[in-house]
Amino acid sequence: MTKLSVNINKIAVLRNSRGGQLPDPAHAARIAIEAGADGITVHPRPDLRHIRPDDVAILRPLAAAAGVEFNIEGNPYAGPSSRYPGFIEMVLAARPEQATLVPDTDSQLTSDHGWDLRREAERLGPLIARLKAAGIRVSLFMDADSEALDDAAALGADRIEIYTGPFALACESGDVDAALAAVCDCARRARAAGLGINAGHDLNRSNLVPLLGAVPDLLEVSIGHALIGEAVYEGLAATVRDYQRVIGQALRR
Known about the structure:
Elements: E1 3-7, H1 9-18, H2 25-34, E2 39-42, H3 53-66, E3 69-74, H4 87-94, E4 98-101, H5 117-133, E5 137-142, H6 149-154, E6 159-163, H7 165-173, H8 177-192, E7 196-200, H9 205-214, E8 220-223, H10 225-234, H11 236-252
Parallel strand pairs: 1-2, 1-8, 2-3, 3-4, 4-5, 5-6, 6-7, 7-8
Helix pairs in contact: 2-3, 9-11, 10-11
């Protein structure tokens, strides 16, 4: 069964836009978990524009007490600053079940590409080793057309997260065949390399159906922007439950 990890960054964006403590990301996480979410994802960036290190410290025990996975995404090269401890240091302190390493810079609005492992392997390798030594599963954010999946396995990664932004755009345009074929091929090559497969970015209830129909052995989908946006209209608990319904129906096809 594909697990749904709910990314709650957008809750923190709304809180930070006003200041203060509301809406509370921890409260949103509790509602999502009670509604059936299998995990909680956060992507704390050095500029603190959404999830902050103090949120991570609160959410880690909350997820553990609820028996769901905690996934911290981010740029492993992000170093410490006055209010940010550095990505690797923060992950090692929190000990999430999974760290998803993403090659985004501080100036990026959102993640928009996967790793070039032919160029970054030497730098990434020791960081992956540190996380693995702490018992943390490591997933690498990868483009569907990447030719370096064997390199991901050689570096010690446990999983990849297929960047599904291009697939989502293709679904919107109605010309999805090539993009879906690329995702399927990526999943096939990841399996052959011994890697588990996650997927994320711009996924929603509509495009989950063809994705899971084509790649039913996805271990996890991480969804935030669409889910939280829909929850504005429909309520968070109802939205999470409906995502789980969509996943279940798609996998039973």
